[in-house]
Amino acid sequence: MISLAGKAALVTGGSRGIGAATVKLFAQAGADVVFNYHRNREAAAQVEQEARKHGTRIESFKADLGKMPEAKKLVEFAHERLGRLDILVANAGIWNDKDEPIESLSEREWDDMMRINLKSVYAVVHHAAPRMIAQRSGRIVAVSSTSGQRGEAFHAHYSASKGAIISFVKSLSAELARHNILVNCVAPGWVDTDMSKTTLETKAGRKSVLGTIPLGRVGKSDEIAGPILFAASDLATFVTGEVINVNGGAVLCG
Ligand code: NAD
Asked: Could you please report the per-residue DSSP string of 73-84?
């Protein structure tokens, strides 16, 4: 097991899916963790309970990260409760299972996607970075997607938001290197979570998804949390500005 003993981590979107798996794995690795939930307090309480079994400090905080003031409050809460901030995982995001041809993709849908998927990452990093700079160390891991690299027909707004996360991360990796802050992306392919559920539930949807994945199956949240842990750990001290693809080989045949 990779150790994060004594580290303080903030994970966004930790109440379910990839974020919840990350919170639990970080706790198992010895980290104290604060995570946000958007609406579902019960789900957050459940994650807290499971993660606390490992004996570290785990706390959740309600925040809509599409709103700058709430992102600020979340980072302040994490820093105040944990006393420092070593790791930020910017994971929260949305994807709409409905196909959106560009002709009908509305300005509102575009703006909402950019606000929740991209501006939220800027928002938490903007407030977390000064604390990491003061500590002269930090790890930032943003969750992008295969979609942000190869595009995704009828989901151009999602793809654009995830592609922008990659260039944001690459910019910050160069900018923050002098402060000993390493910044990377983990880019999942299809993962079995609430986000992908409706697509994977239909026979046609599942067939078309599996056809793009050489390993012949979708990923599990734990299989994304592992590479996130790696990027946040002492095993990755010379890795920055990278996109760690975790997709069962999907990009290779995309
Ligand atoms: P999920 O829907 O299960 O979880 C998304 C999380 O983001 C939830 O905890 C939710 O509360 C949080 N969130 C959503 N809107 C928010 C807001 N406005 N403010 C605060 N939190 C908000 O999905 P997931 O699959 O676990 O997704 C996690 C990340 O992985 C996302 O960034 C997603 O784009 C990315 N991803 C997922 C897949 C996949 O197939 N599931 C593939 C590639 C990338």
From this structure: HHHHHHHHHHSS
Ligand 1 geometric centre to CA of 196 (Å):
10
168 lines ligand 1 (CB under 6 A): no
In the set 37, 95, 158, 190, the catalytic residue is 158
Write the pLDDT tens digit of every residue in 113-141.
Answer: 999 999 999 999 999 999 999 999 999 99
Task: Confirm if 7 and 31 have CB atoms less than 8 A apart.
Answer: yes
Burial class (CB in 10 A: 0-12, 13-18, 19+), 203: exposed
Q: Ramachandran region of residue 125, left (φ > 0), alpha (ψ -120 to 50) or beta?
A: alpha
Task: Say if strands 243-246 and 181-188 run parallel, antiparallel, or are unpaired.
Answer: parallel
**Beta strands 181-188 and 138-143: pairing type?**
parallel
Question: Can you give the pLDDT at residue 251?
Answer: 75
Q: What is the pTM of this model?
A: 0.98
CATH number of 8-246: 3.40.50.720
> Is residue 38 in contact with ligand 1, taking CB distance under 6 Å?
yes
Region of residue 137 (left: phi > 0; alpha: psi -120 to 50; beta: else)? beta
Please state the domain extents for the chain: 8-246
3-state secondary structure 141-208: EEECCCHHHHCCCCCHHHHHHHHHHHHHHHHHHHHHHHHCEEEEEEEECCECCCCCHHHHHCHHHHHH
The finding on whether 139 has its CB within 6 A of some atom of ligand 1 is no
What is the pLDDT, as a whole number, of residue 253?
Answer: 56
